[in-house]
Amino acid sequence: VANEGGKHWTVNEVRALIRIWSDKNIQQQLEGTVRNKRIFEQVASRLQKFGIDRDWKQCRTKYKNLKHEYKSVKSAQDSGSTSKSMKFFNELDAILGHCAMEQASKSDNDESERPPEWTEAKSEKDSIG
């Protein structure tokens, strides 16, 4: 299926994209923003060093498609279905799987959600007593 990105991505091109995407620095930048043209321009220029000629839009489209496919396979697996699979699932799971886990553990951690006034008030009480 040829999308607006033009020619198909080869296995090596996708591997290179995933390798760049797995860079912690890139991941942090992508997590923190929706307007990510600049980040994908970086990704495209790094791909060029591998001899892969893709512009930032193609990189972003491929990233979004991979992420979408990963999520649909992951949710199918979570619901017990093994019929869905994808080529780069393990590589993406290494990147996206931990993101989901971090998100979950963040919401489980009540400590961070306490307003700072509580801890301050507690220490004042201790010093009075």
UniProtKB/TrEMBL annotation:
Region of interest called Disordered, as start-end residue ranges on this chain: 100-129
Protein name: ZSC29 protein
Sequence ranges assigned to domain Myb/SANT-like DNA-binding in this UniProt record: 7-95
Residue stretches of biased makeup (Basic and acidic residues): 105-129
Organism of origin: Falcunculus frontatus (Eastern shriketit)
